[in-house]
Amino acid sequence: MLKRLQLTASISLIALIFLCLLWEIWLAPLKPGGSWMMAKTFPLLAVLFGILKGRRYTYQVSSLLALLYVMEGSVRATSDTGPSQGLALIECLLAIVFFVSVVIYARLSAPSRQRPPPSPEQ
């Protein structure tokens, strides 16, 4: 179960990084030729290797980070027009999938939830 959650979190995070970069550089930038809004991918890049390696603390921090992208996507989905509106909906979806997978991973990987090894007396 943890491997599946780690894979889901990794795929959704990488897709979110690519979406944000492509959106702000090529697909629907705020200014022609790209904008500094592509810098919104820096926090995602900062947690990428921790997510790929399955570090529980990174999963906990990432759950809060994902909410910023849900918020940005929902604001832009309701205020932007044209292709940017559709990209914002995709951003919301990816951020929600990422959020759910990191929260469940962090919960299931808690040390208190790990099964202790059987004792030799049993």
Please provide a written account of the structure.
The chain is mainly α and 122 residues long. The chain has one domain. Helix content is 72%, strand content 0%. It contains 4 helices and no strands. Helix 1 packs antiparallel against helix 4 and helix 3 runs antiparallel to helix 4. The protein is elongated and about 70 Å long. The model has no long low-confidence stretch (mean pLDDT 91).
Per-chain topology:
Elements: H1 2-27, H2 42-53, H3 56-79, H4 83-108
Helix pairs in contact: 1-2, 1-4, 2-3, 3-4
Summarize the biggest pleated sheet. none
Strand coverage percent: under 5%
Tertiary shape: elongated
- Helical content class: over 70%
**Low-pLDDT segments, ≥5 res:** none
Overall number of domains: 1
Helix-strand pattern: HHHH
Number of strands: 0
Total number of helical segments? 4
Could you tell me how far the N terminus lies from the C terminus, measured between alpha carbons in angstroms?
27 Å
Rg over CA atoms, rounded to whole Å, is 17 Å
The overall average pLDDT, rounded, is 91
Structural category is mainly alpha
Question: What's this entry about, in short?
Answer:
It contains four helices and no strands.
What labels would you give this structure?
72% helix; 4 helices; 122 residues; mainly alpha
